[in-house]
Write a structure and sequence with these properties.
Number of helices: 21
Low-confidence stretches: 277-283
CATH class of the largest domain: Alpha Beta
Distance between the termini: 65 Å
Radius of gyration: 29 Å
Shape: elongated
Largest sheet: 6 strands, mixed
CATH architecture of the largest domain: 3-Layer(aba) Sandwich
Number of domains: 2
Strand order of the largest sheet: 4-10-11-3-12-14
Mean pLDDT: 87
Oligomer: single chain
Length: 485
């Protein structure tokens, strides 16, 4: 079975999985945490440990001096990388790529099944994995070395490729070397400190998928003896890793030496689209809005489209009240580890409950001041969008009742138009389409409510206003509409 924890050097990582993402603010001690694990486990006969430092200097080009150091001192790489800034990191990676090739060819020589498969070779199994990370260049073999070429077949000097491409090749090589040198008699741990540095967000996602593919390639038996531990600030990297069933998330807090992992659950996958494009928050300044059901999501998506940028919200679906609570708690824990000024919103149905909701950390919570989102359909503003008023709707409803006396919802409509509060705190889901039909609008109800919310520009204080049904606090915060003094 896979080990449940790593405990060494004063660092404790619990609830271990195959891919362990460690989040935390700058200065929280993530790098120190990984280095403590590295130094604490390096000399143990039960572990095979490799550590990848966060600042990876140098050029991806083999250098004789580095080859010599590696050959003469088995501890050279670990000692040279046991600090944040590792000089000649990429030169060492270039040497390791040659080692990856040698190890692969030896395995090919000793495996009849591998030799018998014409589609299996070092190029397809290893180099193409690296090249899949690159857009403009490719790594190719040339005699005993590896060189870079562009799409026109022209050689590119290693010091002329971009920092991101150089990072990607070095990281991929280090990861390949780790997997090629797994010791099945030990527990194998790869510690990777901020692999997202210098990488474009799309490349970060590709590197995450590269890591997942290496774990997926392992047999179930070998997989039990392997763990990757990754510290990062990157939301696209985290979200890409979260697609794997083997991924867990932990948070390194200030002043603590213990990180507890939790499986990357459905909660992270729900908010992943918000983080998934890493520029979304930077460019549009959107704020996460957690919603209870699909109806709410469609309404607020319509509202955001109608507002044309004035409503800066990113709707995220929870599907149920219980899931909404879980998602609120998850975001309350996740957001502070990623942002200097974490903020998210959550909006729930009223369900006949009048009490306000307490916030959970940076997650500001609101409750509708009506039963659910479809009740907004009967506010003055939504009725106006359907070219009617409450009085006009009641007249239209009476006409409809006269012509549909035996309709199953006839009594419901009668109760509605005689209700003193427009059934504000009653479930009207079964008649929401009928309300639109009686009002003679061709728009569906979600469009009516969403467009109404999206066009609101000033606060109207009225018992039957959409501001009253939504709630004053929600309107001021979510719609950025000030209440007149």
């Amino acid at each position: 079975m896979i080990k449940t924890e790593l405990n060494a050097g004063g660092a404790l990582l619990t609830e271990l999985t195959n891919i362990n993402v460690i989040l935390g603010r700058n200065g929280a001690g993530k790098s120190r945490f990984l280095r403590n694990l590295d130094s604490g486990l390096a000399n143990s006969v039960d572990y095979y440990i490799r550590y990848i430092s966060p600042e990876r200097a140098g050029i991806f080009r083999r250098e004789g001096s580095i080859d010599t150091y590696i050959e003469r001192d088995v501890n050279f790489l670990r000692q040279s990388r046991s600090r944040n800034q590792a000089e000649n990191f990429k030169a060492a990676s270039a040497s390791l790529l040659r080692e990856v090739e040698i190890i692969y060819l030896r395995r090919l020589q000793s495996s009849h099944a591998l030799r018998a498969d014409p589609d299996r070779n070092f190029q397809t199994d290893r180099l193409e994995k690296i090249n899949a990370l690159l857009s403009n260049i490719a790594v190719e073999q040339e005699r005993a070395n590896f060189i870079f070429k562009n799409h026109q077949g022209e050689s590119i000097p290693p010091d002329k490729i971009s920092s991101g491409e150089s990072e990607a090749v070095a990281l991929a090589t280090e990861i390949l070397y780790f997997f090629e040198t797994i010791d099945t008699k030990k527990f194998n741990v790869l510690l990777v400190d901020e692999p997202d540095v210098h990488l474009h967000p799309d490349l970060q996602a590709r590197l995450a998928n590269f890591m997942i593919s290496m774990i997926d390639e392992l047999t179930p038996e070998v997989r039990q003896s392997v763990a990757i531990c990754v510290s990062t600030h990157s939301t696209p990297f985290v979200c890409a890793l979260s697609t794997s069933q083997y991924t867990s998330i932990g948070n390194k807090e200030f002043g603590t030496s213990t990180v507890r992992q939790s499986l990357a659950s459905a909660q992270l996958r729900k908010v992943a689209p918000f983080f998934g494009h890493p520029l979304s928050l930077t460019l549009s300044n959107d704020t996460l809005l957690i919603l209870e059901g699909k109806d709410d999501e469609r309404v607020w998506q319509q509202a955001a489209r109608t507002a044309q940028g004035r409503i800066k919200l990113f709707p995220v679906l929870a599907n149920s009240v219980d899931q909404q609570t879980e998602l609120e708690q998850f975001c309350a824990k996740l957001l502070p580890s990623l942002y200097d000024h974490p903020k998210a919103y959550s909006l729930r149905d009223g369900d006949g409950i009048a009490d306000d909701l307490p916030n959970i950390g940076p997650v500001e919570r609101f409750r509708l001041k009506c039963y659910s989102v479809e009740n907004l359909l009967l506010t003055d503003e939504c009725l106006a969008l359907m070219s009617t008023t409450w009085e006009g709707f009641c007249t239209q409803a009476n006409d409809w009742i006269a012509n549909n006396a035996t309709h199953r919802d006839s009594d419901f409509i009668k109760r509605l138009i005689t209700s003193p509060d427009r059934m504000r705190n009653t479930k009207i889901k079964s008649i929401r389409l009928l309300i639109c039909a009686i009002s003679h609008t061709k728009k569906n109800w979600e469009t009516v409510v969403g467009q109404t919310i999206g066009t609101l520009s000033e606060y109207i204080e009225s018992e039957n206003s959409i501001f009253s049904f939504l709630g004053e606090k929600a309107c001021i915060t979510l719609l950025a509409i000030s209440k007149p003094n």
